[in-house]
Specification:
The structure holds two protein chains of two kinds.
Chain A: E1 5-7, E2 10-14, E3 19-24, E4 32-38, E5 45-50, E6 56-59, E7 62-67, E8 72-77, E9 86-93, E10 98-100, E11 104-109
Parallel strand pairs in A: 2-11
Antiparallel strand pairs in A: 1-3, 3-8, 4-5, 4-9, 6-7, 7-8, 9-10, 9-11
Chain B: E1 5-7, E2 10-13, E3 19-24, E4 31-37, E5 43-50, E6 65-69, E7 75-79, E8 88-95, E9 105-106, E10 110-114
Parallel strand pairs in B: 2-10
Antiparallel strand pairs in B: 1-3, 3-7, 4-5, 4-8, 6-7, 8-9, 8-10
The chains are: A mainly beta, B mainly beta.
Chain lengths: 110, 115
Amino acid sequence: ILNVEQSPQSLHVQEGDSTNFTCSFPSSNFYALHWYRWETAKSPEALFVMTLNGDEKKKGRISATLNTKEGYSYLYIKGSQPEDSATYLCARYNNNDMRFGAGTRLTVKP
Amino acid sequence: GAGVSQSPSNKVTEKGKDVELRCDPISGHTALYWYRQSLGQGLEFLIYFQGNSAPDKSGLPSDRFSAERTGGSVSTLTIQRTQQEDSAVYLCASSATHNPYNEQFFGPGTRLTVL
């Protein structure tokens, strides 16, 4: 994988559903993986910075895992709420740049 | 404290004109990043500064793009002879220092439209 790839591109869930999406990235020369949430009409906001293989981070109902050997990270949202509706971006930190995925657009219907 | 600010928030210009976009990072943040998001595309990294220095300018899309940062604070991104494909949202972010472990704090962006 040469670039950072995210799937699915978009996701519609009902309020209360749990959901997850994937970020795949080049595993060689890995430094860190960042997750950001970007709500419409707002700025991207950091969720997690993950560095260690097997790392698991949690913030409220949102958690993320990291596998640096195979080059993927999962983001989980438990009990989705309408306010979770946003685009979720992952970014792989390279030596001199940050390579972002195209994002997963999540819509949570009440 | 104040977050990252950018100006203008919107800019409409005619093809061929020069534009200057400004970013004011969080006070004390030594690292500053420029990104753009074209319609239907992901965030594209353009350039970063550590202090006043930009070690790698290869992410800039063409030689019409330049960026500078003076005094370790405010940065300007200049696009000369704008083209329609330059239309995008230009985002600026800052972090405490340039290292993999620091989250970036984003500004609200400048929406550039080239007619």
